[in-house]
Structure formats: structure tokens, C-alpha cells
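Incident log, structure service

09:12 report received: a user says their structure output differs between two submissions of the same chain.
09:20 pulled the input from the user's history:
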Amino acid sequence: MRATIAAVLMIAITAICAEARPAGTVGRAEPKPAPTHPAVQTPADTAKAMTQAERQALQSDLAWTGHYNGLINGEVSDRLIAAIKTFQKDRGGKQTGVLNPQERSVLTTAARKARSNAGWKTVTDAATGVRLGLPTRLAPRQSSAGDGTTWRSATGTIRILLTRRKDAGLTTAKLAESERKEPAGRKLDYSTVKPDFFVLSGMQGLKKFYVRGQLQGGEARVLTILYDQATEGIMEPVVIAMSSAFDPFPADGPPPRKIVEYGTGVIVSSDGAIVTGSDVADECRSIVVAGHGNAERIASDKDHGLALLRIYGAHGLKPIALDGGSAKGSLELVGITDPQNQGGGSAVSRVKTSVAQGGGSEPALSPAPAPGFSGAAALDASGKFAGLVLLKPATVAGPAVQTAEAVLAPAETVRAFLKANKVTPASESSDAKAAVVRVICVRK
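09:34 re-ran on a clean worker, output below:
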């Protein structure tokens, strides 16, 4: 401001001097006007020069590091600039509100680590149709009942619930009021109700809660997140990310999966532990192991495509020893094909396949077995357990349909998964045919 005032005064003085100049001075060199200074670019100007996608990525990364608390929508705001400055302050840097390349790289790395630690995945829930982001490592246990799905941590400190409601005359105001009152004892510290959505947050007993619901065509889909206060430091960034990723009525969701799907499981312990493919037990309202009744999904590892089931009260189980056969060359797969592939039957089948050359941590199998073999046991030439078969469903890429792909989760990967979930596999081998079971997933 002082520089601008000085420039204005200089121009005025020059004009006055020109008017008072004697006639003989005409033709002499005119004094140059004071230079004008370009407007200083603000941090907001720098942010506005970014693309929408770049700003959203910046908001997301700052949210995951705990510096940004707001919608991840790509809009420029004072809150975004303040978050950048706080990040710079925490790193001991100059609080400019604009990240230099080194600072942006550090932020990206920190946010990526936080997402990985939470096991962040974007999924579409079969029970409700909602697309959402999930912290799969923080809340790995999934169950479905009625028109909803629940994820929770092993200790119950974290619970994530999706529900779907459809009633005549339903409004967001009615929904919000219902959520305020049930369960009893909720204490609100934030509330907003709009014609098509509402958000509530506060305390529910000793847990913090966050509720976000949206209404469309007389149907409501509601996300509820509950977490102990002791987990607040971990969960606050997750809640922000989940709120922004919540898509209750996705317009371009994937085609729905079959109401009932079949896979294979391998019994690995005499107390009822069964390992199968995560796709077999994914988004199931109920899981049934043929001949043994209902099963519970204990854990899953989406990175390696594995799921752990357990049946209770079963007797005479014959588990297979995970003795680490060779995951190379020719293999024999032992599994149970889909009933449609065997006239409604449930017979155990043995088929030949080979590990493709150059296979890495997920060696490809060729030819791929029939549907129903996901979760089947793979045996090497000596009859030892070499790994678990995983079928990846066919996908559509433009006009072309990609055929289903079969890969192998090696024996060491399966053992590591069981160890991480405190399951001690059988040490004495039995016939693979006696160890495999049909797994039935019911989604609706």
C-alpha cells in the first residue's frame, strides 16, 4: 500500500512540475513515471490455477494427514489455505499457503501411508447399492442382515453401518429426527438438514458418531460411523474421507452380482477354519458351507484375494496340511464346480492346469478352471498343497469382454494369512478331496 501511494504522489508531482515548466524547457527529456507493481498473487490465486482434480487430490491428502477438515470437492476456500499453512508449520517450514514441489511430495507420501495403514478401498455394497470408501484394515469384519451391512473391528471399537429405508412420505427432516432419537442418549454437536441429505455428529455413550443420509425417489440410504474416543486420532481423517466418498445412488455402478454364487473352500484346521477366495465371500448376506450349515467370515485379505471362514460345532473334519508344494509347472486342482456346470450336482472334481511361465506373486493358471473353482486347492506333482485357486471375474473393456482369469495364491501366502489371524493349520495331510467344501454366498 505504501509503494502504491508513493507512486501516485510521484505522478501527481510530475504533473504539477510539467504545468509550471518554463516555455524554454519544452523538448527536454520528460521524467519517466514511477514503475507500477503487478498485483501480488495470493495462495488462493495459486490454488485457483490448479485443475479441479489437482485441488481434490490436495484436499484428500491434507485430510489423510489430519490437516484438512471439510468436503473433498476441489473448491478453493480459506479452510484449504489454512490446512496448507498448518501442514507447513508442522514441518517447520515457512507458512506461505502454497506448497513447493518438495512439500507436495512429502504430503503425498504421508497421505499414501495413512491410506495404506487404514486399508482404504472403494467398494459397492450389494445389500444397499451404496458406493463408499472403507478402511478395510480397521474394520475387516463384515456382516449383512435385512437391508443393511455392517463392518467392525475385531474388538468392536469401530463400527460402520449402511442401511436402506423406503417409506411413504419419507423426508430428510423425518430421517434426521429419527436418527437424533435412536438410539436414545445421543448428544449432538453438529447438525445440518437439507431437502435431499442430512448430517449429524456427536457422542453416543462413550463413542463418537457420524451419520450421513441421502434421500432419492422416496428411498433413503444412511451411513453411520461409530468409534471409541481412543481411536479419534486414527478415525477423524477416515470419517472425512468416507463422508466425501459416500455415493448413495451411483449412476454408473457395476452390474449386480448373482443373488446366489458358488465357490470352493479348503478346510485347514479340525476346529472349523476354512480358507477360500475373498470374491467367494464378498458382500454376502449369509454364507453356507454345504453339509455343515452357516459360516462366519472371520477375516479377509483383499490384497492377496483370501478370506477366512469358520464353521462351528462340526465334527469329523479332515483338514489338509499346507505343506508348501511347488507352485510351478503342472498342477492338479481339486474343487467343486458351479451346479449349473454339473447338472445341479455337488461332486468334487479334479482338473489339470499349468502355471504360466514368468508368474510372480500371483502366478496365472492356464487353462482357467470352470466357475465354482475359486477357492479350490492346487496340488503339485507330488500331491502337496501348492496354493489356492482364485478366479477373477470377466470384465468389460469397451466393446471387448475380457475372459475370466485364474491365478494362484501360493502356499506361503495362505500360511502367512492364517498366521496373521491366529489360525494354526493342520500338520498332517489328508486327501484334498475330503478337505474341500462347497461355499454358497447368498446376497439377497
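09:41 both user submissions now match this output. Likely a transient worker issue. Closing.
09:42 reviewer note: Confidence is low (pLDDT under 50) at residues 1-27, 394-404. The longest strand covers residues 207-216.
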